[in-house]
UniProtKB/TrEMBL annotation:
Cross-referenced InterPro entries: DivIC, FtsL/DivIC
Lineage of producing organism: Bacteria, Bacillati, Bacillota, Bacilli, Bacillales
Protein name according to UniProt: Cell division protein DIVIC
Keywords: Coiled coil, Membrane, Transmembrane, Transmembrane helix
Keyword match Lipid metabolism: no
């Protein structure tokens, strides 16, 4: 039968040097520390972005309100300018003697001596 042959292979022994375990533990600590720092930085970055986005949204809302208010005020200004123009025309008319006489006859039923005024409904002149 076959004979067993012996091999001259040296067995490697695992040598656990005292420094190797410490180095592995230090690597693990550094890795954990790095992960913690990155997580903290990420949380701070997300918080800053959220604060900036919130400020941007609130400013956008405020700008939209101001633009709407500006439109309303511009419309009001146009109306007031139109009213001013009408009032200036009324002032010019009130300086005219004939207009005042006509207005007094129509609104206050004033008449000359011996004159009788009849107000007929529906006949506005």
């Amino acid at each position: 039968m076959r004979e067993k042959r012996e091999l001259n292979v040296a067995m490697l022994q695992q040598t656990n040097e005292p420094g190797q375990e410490v180095k592995a533990e230090m690597r693990q600590r550094r890795k954990r520390g790095l992960i913690r720092r990155l997580a903290a930085f990420g949380i701070m970055a997300v918080t800053c972005i959220a604060i900036m986005a919130s400020a941007l949204v609130s400013q956008s809302i405020a700008i939209n309100k101001k633009l709407e208010e500006k439109k309303q005020l511009e419309t009001k200004l146009e109306n007031l300018k139109e009213e001013e123009k009408d009032l200036k025309a009324e002032i010019i008319k009130l300086k005219d003697e004939e207009y005042i006489t006509k207005l007094a006859r129509k609104d206050y039923f004033l008449s000359d001596e011996g004159e009788v005024i009849f107000n007929i409904p529906g006949n506005e002149q």
